[in-house]
Amino acid sequence: MDFDFSPEQYMLRDTVRDLLRRECSPAAVRGAWASPTGRSPERWRRLADLGVVGLTVPEEHGGAGMDEVDLVLILEEAGRALLPEPLLETTAVAAPLLARAGSDELRSRWLPRIASGEAGVTVGLAGSPYVADATADLVILEREGALHAVTQDRLTLRPLRSMDGARRLFAVTAELGGDTVLSSSPEDARWAFDHAAAASAAELVGVAGAMLDMTVDHVKQREQFGRRIGSFQAVQHKLAETLMLVESARAAVYYAAWALANDAPDASIAASVAKACASDAERRTNLEALQLHGGIGFTWEHDLHLWLKRGKALELQHGDADLHRRRIADWIYAPG
Questions:
Q1: Spatial distance between the Cα atoms of 286 and 263, rounded to a whole number of angstroms
Q2: What pTM was computed for the model?
């Protein structure tokens, strides 16, 4: 049995990594903090041209027709690069949800435009009373157990304070009606939440991996008492333990992607395990990176703070670790 990704999946990951290195540098992320929308239409267009935005859109609607396993490495790269654009909401949740539960009219109207990058879409699911994109043409909202597909002209968005300026938050008021119902099935709502949680976990692993790499590079250079601090055993132990958490979380994320792609019986729990492990790994990495960088890591002038803040934001997105542990406990102790 082969548990590895295919050469084609690694090739796509490497292509996206190269694109994000060029298009989503720390300077570009700082630019998103300062821009009116926090978004770059040009960068989104390039991702769409590469096929990334439409990766989970069915081929008959102009997408690549791929699945969660193909997407998970891309989400990890998006987290590593702190991509401001809503790849998670669009490609991991909204597009496959529209393909799964949408009417023929909804699918034919929105999926080709999503795949081409022409239409923006985001989600506001239960447990997350905000949306992360004010420019979206379509917002999928969960209200009272039903999923609604709401167009921009029926939405009122109120800006909220966000610790991550490249990830704006908005409270949303929507004019809902029978014509906005995407699905009233609890199973579809659970499916959407599982995908959002697993995708957030994939981005968290990318964020944690980037912070760990930055910290290892820093301790190899920073000197105290005439020695590089990376030579101290206490520092090495901290980083080794952090690496183990990140690698364990990565394994849980990859399994969750496989379970969701194959509609495995434990897919929902696998998503919760992935989100809980990734949140824990990111929190530990966040703490150690900040401590080992000293005060400089907390300053605006140093890039680390961009990852620190994105990590903290993603920890809470689509359920924190405590919520997902409760889901796991409910599953374990459910009546037989």
A1: 33
A2: 0.96
